[in-house]
């Protein structure tokens, strides 16, 4: 596995006790973090198109905080690059950085969903 992970909550599970209770808590954290789906990107994309760079930057910062806790190192890295471009108002760089971040976010959502399916007991 590469140094830069898409999604990894193994450390979090171990830190929480590495048992069924820990798995349950981490599963809730993962579900809550992923619950907004692509909505933050739709909001941030609209903010960028409307020139509200500060609003877009705040949304990306928030996503980075909630999803970063899930071991999403690649997403954190992509978000920091985009947030920096927004802060420096480098409009030429923003579209490609936004696309890269959105792509990473979709990978995190996919991997998180896979993890939840493997680690959540079937409802019964």
From TrEMBL:
RNA-binding is among the record's keywords: no
Keywords for the protein's UniProt record, in alphabetical order: Two-component regulatory system
Pfam families on file: Hpt
Gene3D superfamilies in alphabetical order: HPT domain (1.20.120.160)
UniProt keyword Membrane present: no
Protein name: Hpt domain-containing protein
GO biological process, one term: phosphorelay signal transduction system
Molecular function, one GO term: protein kinase activity
Domain (HPt) ranges: 41-108
